[in-house]
Amino acid sequence: MGSVDSSRLPLVFFARLSGLVVAVSVLYWALFLPNQGLSYSTLHPLLMVIGFILVSGEAILIHRWLPGSRKTKKAVHLWLQGVALASAVFGIWTKFHYQRGVFANFYSLHSWMGLLSVSLFGAQWVTGFMSFWHRGEVRTTRTTFLPWHVFIGLYTYGLAIATAETGLLEKLTFLQTKRNVPRRGSESMTVNGLGLGLALLCGIVISAAVLPKYQSHSGNEKLVYSSQDRPKCLSS
C-alpha cells in the first residue's frame, strides 16, 4: 500500500478550495445572472469548466492524496480523465446547435485552442488506457514514455485553462459591447473573478504535480530516481 504524501496535502487543500470557488462562480454566472436557466449556451461553460477542467485537475491530484497501490491510483486517474473527456466532447457538441450552421462558432482563437486541447486530451487518454490494460510491454518503454505522459498531461491542462480564459474574455467583450453590460456590474465582476480563480487553480494543481516527491514507497511499489530526477526503475 502506498503512503500519502503529507508534504503536498496543503496544496491539495488549496486546489480544492480554489476549485470550489471556480465551481460556484461558473454556476452563479451561467444559471442565475442571465436569467435563462439551462440552455446550450449555459451548458457549454458548465461542462468545460466543471466537467473538463475541475475533474481533470482532480485526476492529476489523485496521485498526491489517494492512499493505496499505484494500480488503484492509476485506475481512478484513468476513469476521472474519462469523465473529463466525455464532458469536454459534450461541451463542444453544445456549440453545434445554432441556426447559423454547424461550424458557425469555430472561427476564433478560443474555438481553435479548445479543439486542440480536447484533441490532445483524447489522445492522451487513449494512450493511458492502452498502457493500463496492456501491462506486458517492455518496462523500459513505459519508463521512457512516463515523462512525456506527464508533460503532455500538464501541458494539456494548462492549455485548457488558457482556452477557458480566452472564452471568458470573448464572452465578456460580447456582453459589454453588444448587450451594454456595465464594466463594473455584477456579471462583469463575476466573469473576471472566475478568470482569476482559474489562473490560481492552474498554478496550484501544476505545483502539486511537479514539486519534488518525498514519498516513502514500500513493498512491490518502488520508484527510484537518479540525480537528474529521471525514473530508473518503475515497478508495475
Commentary on this structure:
It is found in: Membrane. Its EC number is 7.2.1.3. Pfam families: Cytochrom_B561. It comes from Arabidopsis suecica. This is ascorbate ferrireductase (transmembrane). By secondary structure, the protein is an all-alpha fold. It has a single domain, classed as Up-down Bundle (Four Helix Bundle (Hemerythrin (Met), subunit A)), CATH 1.20.120. It is 69% helix and 3% strand. The chain has a two-stranded antiparallel ribbon with strand order 1-2. Strand 1 and strand 2 form a beta hairpin. It is globular, with a radius of gyration of 20 Å. The two termini are 13 Å apart. The C terminus is likely disordered.
Outline the secondary-structure elements.
Blueprint: H1 9-31, H2 40-65, H3 70-93, H4 109-133, H5 139-178, H6 186-210, E1 223-225, E2 231-234
Antiparallel strand pairs: 1-2
EC number: 7.2.1.3
Membrane topology: Multi-pass membrane protein
GO molecular function: metal ion binding; transmembrane ascorbate ferrireductase activity
Strand runs, count: 2
Summarize the biggest pleated sheet: 2 strands, antiparallel
Strand content: under 5%
Rg, please? 20 Å
Topology order in helix (H) and strand (E) letters = HHHHHHEE
Quote the average pLDDT.
81
What is the CATH topology assignment? Four Helix Bundle (Hemerythrin (Met), subunit A)
Q: How does the overall form come out from the CA principal axes? A: globular
Instruction: Please list the strands of the largest sheet in the order they lie side by side.
Output: 1-2
